[in-house]
Specification:
heterodimer; A: mainly alpha; 4 helices; 0% strand; B: mainly alpha
Chain lengths: 116, 129
Amino acid sequence: MARSHKPVIWGLFAAGGTVAAFLAPVLILISCLAVPLGLLPPEILSYERLLELLQNPISRLVVFAVLVLIIWHAAHRLRITAHDVGMSSDSLVMIACYGTAAAGTLLAMLALFSPV
Amino acid sequence: MTRRPYKAEFPALSWWLRQPRYIRYMLREMSALFLGIYVLVLIAGLYCLSLGKPVYEQFLTVAEGPVGLTFAVITMFFAVYHTYTWFKVTPKAMPLTLRGQRLPGAVIIAAHWLIFALLSAAVWLLVSS
């Protein structure tokens, strides 16, 4: 029997959905809303501060895992939903969704792990 | 004899407006669009960070503008809705039994929200300290 890629994709979907459920709201709060709302000082997002936060390889790995899992979750969900809004060519949708997720994964790798 | 296969007729882009539960389904699915774009922008920001201070500060100026802020508010709504729907199905996705008794769904959901609150507080303290 041919092996299916389904379990892998589904595993990423479920893991990413869980990570997003627990962490996305607080991430959005800190990265986008806390400074305009006056809950955190603007320096929290400064260049120096973020470099300091990401200096530790473990924190870079955690950030990478969180972002990449959410992106694959989103890609898979959008692929499935595309069918419901009339996009009937699954292969095209699949290339668009997983292609974008793969590109995002690559960019995250470059951003976080390329030697400066 | 001509074959006339049944073709469901529904407008591809607006069928889900017919019933509240279809709308809720579509809201849930569309959370992925907003979360996906948000994470892509975050990755772009990290990439700018790796290119140096001037590039990163340019990114910040754009991201903190009115478009970025509006997008963030909408994404926040979808993110919380995703959390709500994701936790809501946990009793079905992960039924638990304790001493032979099926744990009530509400307990499983409440436990998820408790962990959500603790994790959010932990991340907040970690980043803001």
